[in-house]
Design goal:
The protein is mainly α. Helix 1 packs antiparallel against helix 2 (about 65-145). It has helices at about 10-60, 65-145. The protein has a domain at about 10-105.
Length: about 150
């Protein structure tokens, strides 16, 4: 008789839940990485604007051009600030998702561990049953040899 784990359906559901939570966690991690990359890009852009202003100022720049450069830098810094806020929200969501994933994983591991224990007990019982059968065969052969 083959091993049948009575909670196999529950284990499958837990595995699917774990996979789903992991995918959500990975998606959030990708969003966090993208937000960080965009922040770095904006910081580089702001630095480039500042360098350009200094170079233009040394060559002579009009007030309108200076005002335009300052407005560009200000807009870039505002986008960075908004992205920083978004990044913090994403990081909080990522932490919360990590907790959900770990809880789901723990629930699945509990069922999987139970399955492993039941399988080990089943295999031990099968081994004992096989050994008993071999012992009986041996004893029958011995009895037949004595009687002949």
């Amino acid at each position: 008789m083959a091993f049948a784990f009575p909670l196999q359906g529950v284990l499958r559901v837990r595995e699917l839940q774990e996979r789903s939570e992991l995918q959500k966690l990975q998606a959030l991690a990708a969003q966090v990485a993208a937000a960080r990359a965009e922040i770095l890009s904006l910081e580089a852009e702001a630095e480039q604007i500042r360098r350009g202003v200094w170079q233009e100022a040394s060559a002579g720049i009009s007030g309108a051009e200076l005002h335009f450069s300052a407005a560009r830098e200000s807009a870039s810094l505002e986008r960075r600030r908004l992205l920083q806020t978004k990044l913090q929200e994403l990081e909080r969501a990522q932490q919360a998702q990590m907790q959900r994933y770990l809880q789901t994983r723990q629930k699945k591991e509990t069922i999987a561990h139970l399955r492993e224990e039941q399988l080990a007990a089943y295999e031990l019982e099968q081994s004992r049953r096989t050994q008993r059968q071999l012992d009986e065969i041996f004893l029958v052969r011995q009895a037949v040899r004595r009687n002949s």
